UniProtKB/TrEMBL annotation:
Coiled coil: none annotated. The chain crosses the membrane at residues 34-60. It is a multi-pass membrane protein. Keywords: Endoplasmic reticulum, Lipid metabolism, Membrane, Sphingolipid metabolism, Transmembrane, Transmembrane helix. This is Serine palmitoyltransferase small subunit A. It comes from Papilio xuthus. It is found in: Endoplasmic reticulum membrane. InterPro entries: Ser_palmitoyltrfase_ssu-like. The keyword Nucleotidyltransferase does not apply.
Length: 72
């Protein structure tokens, strides 16, 4: 069991390092990392909200319009 936990921990650490290298966050100050991570979370949350509220409702309305047109 602990071997699996260690492997998962190593996997997560490796992907975190890859994320830091890909975004070039490995060379900034810790407070700058926090600010950038907060901005990433904010942007992705806004994307999620937009897709959930606007796009999903638009799709549901289009599906409802098709059903309504088939009934008449």
């Amino acid at each position: 069991m602990s071997d699996a936990v260690e492997r998962i921990g190593k996997y997560v650490k490796r992907w975190y390092v890859r994320y830091l290298v890909a975004t070039e966050l490995y060379m900034v100050e810790p407070w700058e990392k926090v600010v950038i991570h907060v901005l990433f979370v904010l942007v992705f949350s806004l994307f999620w909200y937009f897709n959930y509220s606007i796009v999903l409702n638009g799709i549901l309305q289009m599906r409802d319009i098709k059903r309504h047109a088939e009934l008449h």
